[in-house]
Amino acid sequence: MRKIFLATSMICITMLMSCENSTKQAAETETGTEAVATGQSGVQDDLSQKNVVQVAIGSKDHSTLVTAIQAAELVDALSNAGPFTVFAPTNAAFDKLPAGTVDNLLKPESKDDLANILQYHVSLGVFKAESFTDGQIIGQVNGNDIKISISDGKVMINESAIIVASVPASNGIIHIIDGVLLPPAAN
């Protein structure tokens, strides 16, 4: 009797396991994808407000910035809860850099330099444009500071980039700027 019970139990367990595998394979076949673990950027949410990365991805004027964020592997970090203030240079801002600069920064061996530059465009916390004060110093994620100046109602960062628009995001705010911020040279 005990042998029959063990045999029946083994058959049931085997059938359950094969059903589970069939269901998983059917789901993967149906979606055409394999189960892949991803970070915060892999979370699908079509109902909530977009985060700073999703806003940038949706902007035709920020494709260079998006490519740089991907190359520096910062997508997941900037998709997290934050809050972040991102100073987002437009494609035209990147075009102002000397020829070949962006291409060189996108090379794998320049990943650390690229990440440093991109992190110089990010502050922890939400800083709205109307709250900036002339002479304000703000610490950036890379450990350096930026300086805000206000003249004729325009907010300028490091006297080199002007905020042309601001876009709220679920995890902070994006200030669209007309120049690329370059961190001070390391001593």
Automatic annotation (TrEMBL):
Q: Which domain of life is it from?
A: Bacteria
InterPro entries, sorted: Adhesion/Biosynth-related, FAS1_dom_sf, FAS1_domain
> GO CC terms on record?
extracellular space
Task: State the UniProt keywords alphabetically.
Answer: Signal
> Where does the UniProt annotation place the signal sequence?
1-26
Ranges for domain FAS1 come to: 49-181
**Pfam families in the record:** Fasciclin
Protein name, entry field: Uncaracterized surface protein containing fasciclin (FAS1) repeats
Which lineage is the organism of this entry classified under, starting from the top rank?
A: Bacteria, Pseudomonadati, Bacteroidota, Sphingobacteriia, Sphingobacteriales
